[in-house]
Amino acid sequence: MDRDGYGSRPGQTAIERLLEDSRTLSPLGVERVASGWEHHAGSGTHDDYRKAERAALHVLETSGRARQWDELRNQLLGLTERPGAMVSWRVEHGDVGHKAEDALLGAALALLAGSDLDQPHHEALVRPMAEALPWLLGSTAS
Q1: Within its chain, how far is the Cα of 67 from the centroid?
Q2: 3-class DSSP state for residue 52?
Q3: Strand locations in the chain, DSSP E?
Q4: Which residues does 23 contact at the CB level (< 8 Å), separation at least 6?
């Protein structure tokens, strides 16, 4: 925890922190994430991002965690677009919200893959979301 009291709680996983922090993002935070998605991932078209995504999915499939990914992905989509979605994500619904949602999914994918994913691929997946949550750049394990 930093001097302002920001940080993970004892025993909190990186995924739990991501979920918690995503719930508290303001509409401006959602916009920053969407901008990071465009800039760092090319809205998912940059080769580095696509390679990182494939590498993380391979890690999850070969380690028997594909079902965990499906469950986490569904949980995140429930927070961002289904009935009862968080207010800030509803405010930014549309193109901005979808870009931010894609960045959130990429960060969650990297965190779930954890230390089994190499650092360059991890960084490529978390960098867009790190525009609003900079702690992600120092994360590795789920």
Answers
A1: 17
A2: helix
A3: none
A4: 79, 86
Rounded Cα distance, 97 and 107, in Å: 15
- Considering only CA atoms, give the Rg of the chain: 14
How far apart, in whole angstroms, are the C-alpha atoms of residue 111 and residue 13?
9
Query: H/E element holding 70?
Result: helix 66-80
Rounded to whole angstroms, the Cα distance separating 76 from 60 reads: 17
Cβ atoms of 109 and 125 within 8 Å: the answer is yes
How does pLDDT run across 103-130, given as a tens digit for each residue?
999 999 999 999 999 999 999 999 999 9
Say which residue the tokens 């890690």 belong to.
Answer: 59
What is the Cα 78 distance to its own chain's centre?
14
CA distances in angstroms from 125 to 4, 54, 59, listed in the order given: 27, 11, 14
Which residue is associated with the tokens 């969650």?
Answer: 108
pLDDT of residue 79: 77
